[in-house]
Amino acid sequence: MDELAKALPGKGPTAVEIADWIRSQIRAARLVPGQRLIEVDLIRQTGGSRFKVREALQRLAAEDLVEIEEFRGASVRGASMEEVRQLYRARAALEGICAGDFARLATPEEKQRLREIAEEMEDCVEGGTRERFGALNAQWHTLIMRVTGNEVIETLVKRLNTPVHHLLFETFYRGDRLREAVADHRLILDAILAGDAPRAEAAMRQHIENGHRFLSSLDAAMHPAG
């Protein structure tokens, strides 16, 4: 029985918990694009009921992370680099807006919390704890979006994030990328602490674009032309 089922002995997981687990498996490349998601396997791995597993798959299909076809069932959805490029352009615009708004609206306590998370991420780079860095990075970006109070942008960005799963988490979160991300975060944070909304927005946009550039270079290395 898998770790999700073990973590919830005597208590079946909710559809949200099952969806979160499947999403984590996809992002860690344990489930890959095109792979079929067999209901009976998911029931065994998660300890969830058939009804909850199906609900979880419907949730993931709504995020475009899973495809559900009649008579074939569910499978992990792939994403082309052109789609990823478009998603990153949208993220750059949306998260840039939030960074500018955060610089204007955040309280001193919220700005201090942003600084603390950034410092924790820097510690992760030196300690080599990539999983922790990924979790903190999600917290950092979510805090910026949440303080602005724009739930629509936050929901959109979460959906835009998911199709990037086709590149390995372990490859994306490697030392050179982590150091680049930390440097980007410093620029964003400096602008926010200075209350400079236009600079914060521009720095966030550049940060997202740098992430896309890095993904593109990885994809080119993994799939050389010819």
From TrEMBL:
It comes from Alteraurantiacibacter lauratis. Residues 12-79 form the HTH gntR-type domain. Keywords: DNA-binding, Transcription, Transcription regulation. This is GntR family transcriptional regulator. It comes from the Bacteria.
